[in-house]
User: Fold Receptor-type guanylate cyclase gcy from Seminavis robusta.
Amino acid sequence: MMSRAASKSFDSDDDSIMASDDEMFQDDDDHTSTKASGTLANNSSDESTSTIKNRISKKESQNVFRLRLLVVLVLLLTALAISYTVYWLTSSAEAEEFKVQYEGAAEKIIASFEDIMHKMGSISTLGVAFTAYSVNFGDNWPFIALPNFQQRAGNARHMSGALFVGVAPVVTRENFDAWDEYVTSEDNRWIDEADVYQEQLGMNGFGSMANYHKTHLTDRKVDLMHRFDATGKAFREETTESPYFPLWQTSPFVNSSGLVNRNILCRKNVTQLIANVMTTESAYLGDILRAPPGNSSDPNTMTALFATLMSMNEGHSVPYGGEPLVEMYLPIFDAFNESQRRVVGILKTIINWESYLRNILPSNVNGIEVVIDYECAGAEQNLIADTDKNGEDAGFTFLLNGPEVKFIAYGDQHEGFDEWMRNGNLITDNLDDGTVRGIEVDPTCSYDIHVYPTQKFYDHHHTSMPMVITWSIVAVFLFTIGVFLFYDHLVEYRQSVVLKTATQTTAIVSSLFPRNVRKRLLETDNDGHLRLSTKSRLKSFVINGDAEEIGSTAAPIADLYPQCTVFFGDICGFTVKFGKLQCILAWSSTREPAQVFVLLQSLYQAYDVLAKRRRVFKVETIGDCYMAVTGLPEPQEKHAINMVRFAWDALLETNKVTKRLECSLGPDTADLTLRIGIHSGPVTAGVLRGDRARFQLFGDTVNTASRMETTGRCGKIQISEATASILRESAKEHWLTPREDMVNAKGKGIMIAYWAHPSCLKGSVASGESSEAKSAQLSDTPTLSADERLVEWVVDLILYDIKKILHTRMHSKPQPSTEKLVYHPPSGKICLDEIQDIVHMPEYNASIAACRSAHDDISVNKAVVSQLREYVGAIANMYRGNFFHNFEHACHVVMSSKKLLTRIVTPELSEEQLEKLKRKKHAGDLACHIHKFTYGINSEPLALLAVTFSSLIHDVDHRGISNMQMMKEEPDMAHKYRGKSIAECNSLDLAWDLFMEDRFQDLRRCMFLNQQELLQFRQLVVNIVLATDIFDKDLNGLRRSRWEQAFADHHCVDFDTDLRATIVLEHIIQASDVSHTMQHWQVYQKWNKRLFREMTHAFKNGKLAKDPATFWYRGELGFFDNYIIPLAGKLKECGVFGVSSDEYLNYAVQNRAEWAERGEQLVEDMVADMQDPSEHNSRRGSNLVASLLDNADLYRQATESTNLVTNALYCQPADHPESCDCCKGGKQ
Assistant:
């Protein structure tokens, strides 16, 4: 039943429906009416449920939002409260620390200031000593000299801190003449005693006071009583004034006749003070003394005096900085009885205020200002010593930084902080001299002290740390809020996704599968939880790599897949492979590890892309073998077709990738291809548990596919009968070509095999399409020829060295030369005349070494690159079409030399050595060590370029004959080069003349900065190229003597670096020239056969006196024993080639042993091959040299798959050529 409101709305909204209802009732169709009512009721119910759900969802969303907002507000308020609290606490702590530190410092300063008069009591005891001496010995004043005065006065000065103490007795007019006689008598011996005592203490010899010391009145040790006028001129004291106060005994004694016996009544205020002392019998503080700043040699007498006194007090030369000093005058009595005593002398003391402020504060308290004010009633203020300056501010300011004191200026100069001022004053009650009453201090002159903090002291204790801590706390809370909001967003998003996915999954499963099917799909474990079936779990592992169930207690994840096709692909030529019809050379044995991994990574990544596109599952890679399968984890109806197509795509991609990489990885890279084997059948697939669980295949199908690969041929897809049957059933019979022979597979016996060519159209095989045409389909885009790729590779290597030169030049910033960079040897001079025993390497430059980094981003002008490519191409064309001495051989010499240079640039250092170098003080020690380790070769990119250049040109225009034969055939050339190193000199001159042509001017300017660098490069090239001539006895003797000189003592520290560098460069080219003998056996065999062919060809043409077959076996043994193995040993003894020296030596020894065992049979085989005309390969004329193979079968295979080319060099017995039979016929 509808609600009344709903019915009313329904009636008012649509009259036609009401009419329809009336008709229904009139027809008395109860069933129809009931059905309609039920439908309306259900719609209403659904709408109501949806509305309620939306309302509840909205309400819950609002509640969650409110809760989220509340949490954020609580976090914000908490952050504010904690931040404010922390800021207040830290600020208060700093303020309290400031107060405690300042008040403690101020108390120490004031206490030290107030204690000055207590210290001055030690001065008054000196007056007591004079009184006691006169009383005990009955001497009459003023004729008294206190014994041991310097010791007593020095002790008093030390205890009081005074700079100067002097005694001025009272001299009247009556005893004036007697006084002059007294001071010039033997009683002035205290002066000599003082001088000796002060010399012992190191107090003498500070400055020269010539302008002050001498009065020029007499030449006596002590002048008559005198004083100085305003100009500093001394004059005799007159007898009209009385009394007199001549300065007598002083401490320290300043060695001058001007200071002793000088009347101290020199200033008006001093006269008044002394009169007061005489009258009141009290001590008086005088006015401030000051003079211009200066040292003890200053022409101003008072400046020089003050600086001298300060230096003698400190024990070292101290300048006077203009700081204030003060005088103090104390009475000396003739008796101890106060009623009967009278003043008979004056003690004059000079006080340095700065000395009383030193060493008060600890070193961590800095920035305290001290202002001392003074006032002397009834006396003239601010009198500068011996000057008339008046009117300045009374007082002076000091700055205390820890124990140090600095005088700022006269007057009150403090920065502020008046509210923190602390005051003190000089206590002037009396001086304790050991008597009953002591000596009273007249308060006429009062001194007050004021202590202030500076801004520096304030800033030290009021830092930004409270604000930093506060903002850090705020940042932490803000980060926490952000993390909370982000996490809340993720949770909400995850919940919505899970809910949506669960709803959809439930709906799909419920609608598609009945209960019994779902039960089979989803198994339950022992706890009743849903669990994927075995096959579903295996599929999950294959697709997602999920290994969550590989524990020892988990059920095995494995299953049988009856319809699968397995693929094995091996990179042909990557490593040495032996088979019935093939022996492929090892590309990887001639490369650096980094180059090997670049090739494998590039190929495998390309295969992975193809596998995804063809729905092929990659199982694993083992070395240079790629394994894949189709038909699992998802069954595939066309598993065999997909796999064969994938195999064909892999062949094409291999061809493209290797040709693209040849420019960077070197010759023969483009000759690499795949050898593929395919078989179809059932496969067991599963996950092996262990530390590194992985998906694996098992079964006879896998073994058979592996046999198809190992018995296949390079560049071909070999499939089994089982796979062929599937292809026939799929109407792909035109892809198949039966193999001409049966396959004898290990463990399988005789098998029928087929070659698969998915690119073949129907009828192409029947029409006689050649295998060459099929192989030509491997390249779907035009590419460079093998010869052009060799040229590009050499160009890239030389460009790499040029970039090193430009990079170094960019940091050293030298000035380029404008001269024309051309060099031709003078007439009559040949390259042999240019050989030097030592080629000088550059000195170590730390600035350049520090900047030596990656230089790949250095750009080279396009014109330079074009000229370089043209030059290398021209050099290639200058090589003749020999079997061995050809451009291909030169490229492999380049590759071998580059490998050795790489090992020089990166010397082997242990972890301990590296850490030791890194711990050294200088950052450049590691670079300096590498420089010394490599004898400077690493620091000279021009030398690296010279090695590459020399390796390229060293056999240009080689005729394939010995130098002796060339002397017969080319008498003019032999005469030109004096019958020595003819082939080497000819190659060098041809290549150099070409290099000096005008068309390569830009190339030379890029390589060389000036003519000096060009000549240095020429010298390197001459030495390196001519090092390949190992037959010249003079050169061999020179090399042996240099070796003994450089490397005889390996522990020698003081060795000739340039000599060793020259020898290393020569050994690089020598080792590279015969590197095939120090590489893998198959590499050695390949180039040994080529050399044998070349020499046999020369013999048949009458250019070699003896048939190589008659001496080849024993000649090779002698060659190994007398040259190769010693040369490899020298590489090791050089100590700069790292593991390469061990590698070369090991291969040399192994190849020698292998040749000793099999050499005779191999010579017979090579002779047999030479007798079969079908075995001969065509040779190039003046164009670039083509690849030469060893036999017809290998040649046919290489035509289809491109043969692998490796390093090849010829034999050069350096030390004992006469013992090598193979070398007697000509240059190897």
Summary: The longest strand covers residues 673-688. The chain has 39 helices and 28 strands. The two ends are 114 Å apart (CA to CA). The chain has a mean pLDDT of 77.
